[in-house]
User: What shape does this take?
Amino acid sequence: MHSFFNRNIKNMQKNLVIVESPAKAKTIEKFLGKDFKVMSSYGHIRDLKTKEFSIDIENNYKPEYVIPDDKKKLVSELKAEAKKAETVWLASDEDREGEAISWHLAEALKLDPERTKRIVFHEITKNAILHAVETPRNIDINLVNAQQARRVLDRIVGFQLSPILWKKVKPALSAGRVQSVAVRLIVERERDIHAFVAEASFRVIAEFILPDGLALLKAELHKRLKTKEEVYAFLRICEKATFSVDDISTKPLKKSPAPPFTTSTLQQEAARKLGYSVSQTMMIAQRLYESGFITYMRTDSVNLSDLALGAAKEAILKTYGERYYRFRRYSTKTKGAQEAHEAIRPTYIDNEAIGGTAQEKRLYELIRKRTIASQMADAELERTTILINVSGSKEKFAAVGEVLVFDGFLQVYREGTDDENEKEQENGLLPPVNVNDLLKLKDMVATERFTQRPPRYTEASLVRRLEELGIGRPSTYAPTIQTIQNREYVEKADKEGAERPYTVIALVNHKLSETEKREITGADRNKLTPTDTGMVVNDFLMTYFPDVLDYNFTANVEKEFDAIAEDQMEWTKAIDKFYKVFHPIVEKTAAVKTEHKVGERELGTDPETGKPVFVKIGRFGPVAQLGAAKVDDKDAPKPQFASLMKGQSIENITLKEALKLFDLPRTVGESEGKTVVAGIGRFGPFIRHDNKFISIPKDKSPLTITLDEAEGLIAEKRAKEAQRSFKKFDEEPDMEILNGRFGPYIAYKGSNYKIPKTVKEPKELTLEEATKIINEAGKKPAAKKQTKKKKS
DNA sequence: CAGTGAGCGAGCTTCCGCTTGACTT
Assistant: This one.
């Protein structure tokens, strides 16, 4: 059938196929047979220089591409193999980046166009690959140009905005098309939260006794009451009212399964259901992919291959029966989706359980269930609503019950929710009643409820928002979240809630009573919160570069990239159009001279010294400054500085709070004849005693810590130190067995040696055994010593 | 690891998207 592949069996490696990932290379090599050698490019092999701008503006934005050092060896290997091969098949992904990878390969390996073919396949099956090989094409230079435009635009934005921040705000900051919008989302959400005013209303719930005198029916007033007065007025009517069934209606409801996983939805569900962080999910998925258990994990496609659809159908029919199966094809609606891959699914859907770590098993199970459910029938429900009249009032109560008539896909999988209020209010079956039945009121309770402030973003919900806006790609969601935290624009923070009183008014046995209860509101754990730096940088960029920070900026430039890909626009023209507007603003902004630093705020005057007090972003973060810098007068006293404490913000710190910071470092007292000092250092609040530093825990402040508390911390630290040491050797004082962050290890003459897992009781290691471990470790390339800053 | 910062100046920092190792004291 494919005689083509059977030719030249004796000549080895007539063909070289280059794909992007080694796992993929391994799989397709099996399908192609001996005439084909399959190698991997490991992603891009060329890029702009990392430390230079690398775009020649004068020369029509010519990019200067280089092969990164860590790719040089690989590229020379590829080159050598390409030279030997009769035909080189470039088989990178079909999207913009994939096309560019093929083009860079062709250029860097200096491939002969006559002997080079570009192929793509949409699924890794023998047929698909053989079909691809039979229908090769050339490199699509328009698509490549669209990628070059994308690359050059990102470099221009990133490398021209960041230096302005170094100058105006703080060194080593960064800005970019994706990360700056991510920060903006978080900053604006935080401001929305602070501006939010909760509105109160009363929710009225009544419990009725049915005519049989036994069954209870719980119903809620169809609207909320605004004020206490309204509640009292209504409850007084109810006190004397009769209640009757007004109407009973049932209507069928359907629920459909969620589509198969993309990178973004996998990250969201793994966070909701398994509690994994975005990067954790990606690491686990990578291992599943490399082990051959799932398809590629960086994708924006919800599409399943015909093969997978067939396998899912078979699995559903076999396990659940025909009624549970429904063929579904999903289409991707995300802006800017490129669909180079399939959705994330098990490679073999029959594979119910896999080997591996517990985490891998759980993620695999999640992926498998989601995939199967996506091809299953709708769940069918029946919702019954009973309306109840109140004599003397036009208001009605409603009791709602939902009954699952057919579980369908819910048998396998139910999608998680981010809404913490929506706690699966299970309205079960309602008791049987008839219209006009009279109901007896058991009790009625009006509870004051408040509107909810907008939620802070989690990593996963931020990814979802970015994807909705078409900003970022599956391969960058996790790194972007890392970057904005590394720059200290945002942090995962816990917020303590505040106590809020609320009123409950009850009508029981014809008696009205009012009680005040308390609840905690606004508490948050592990949510993305902007730092002062993040807010100052965001405000600065919003002032001078609103176009780049616009939520539609990416979507707009994507339209241009599409036009380039369709040969309707030259990529350099598109870049020129942007640059002609953007660069002058860069120049102008860099030249703006301001009396005060960006984001600086004057709080007032220190009543003791009469000096002004400022807060701003200093070289090391948020800082308070006492006294203005006198540039002209060299003899003038220098201003004093004090870092803000965690939890304080330059946005809202008061003069009084700021002045207190200058009390640090402060002498707490004397212990064992040595002074105890409290302060704030590079790593947060600390106390120092006998030249040893001890961190102050969150619940205490260096401003108020007492000598007693400090002595407690010192004792605690000593106890911990003692625990850290498992064993010391009298014969060899240089050797010690310690318990460290990564488990027990041997410290010997400045080096550390890991104790193999085979040792069950590290505490009982003998000197001989320990020496043996050290000697064996010495044979391998020696573990690097931690580079420590030398004190001079 | 730790009380940092306006004296001066050189040299450094930075983007987004493809992909995995080599590291783990």
